[in-house]
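Letters spell out the chain; the tokens describe the backbone. To illustrate:

===
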Amino acid sequence: MLEVSIIGAVGERMDKERFVEYFRQSGGDGVALDADAVYGMDHLKSALMHAERSLRRGDNVSKRLLMETLLYASGERQLSVAISKIGLRDGPGSAVLLIQGLDPDKVIEDLELRRDDTVISSNDGETKEALERVALVDIIKR
């Protein structure tokens, strides 16, 4: 699998449709999550690990690694529910970007954001619960 960069960002113009169109035209892949719905780097790394395994086993819901990762990070089995639960919110704010096949610094610049990895914060209790939700996705997908 290609390397996935996980970065935090803040900006005045968070716009789901603009981000989707950017990644669609970029030649790479990316997913933007609401930073408030992410419970630290361990949460995202666990979701990514589960998504990679799901794709290897062939029991994936999405054909794209990053969308499968979104499912696991949200603790949901349906993409529409996962996106509404942890997807990017429009307006000023913070986001966590998962980027594959692109230069993260260029993505930040092109989307007029400022990198800020502190938005990928964690709280031990919340992280533990998030990791449990990630693991439960394998069960609810069956």
Observations:
- The first helix runs from residue 16 to 26.
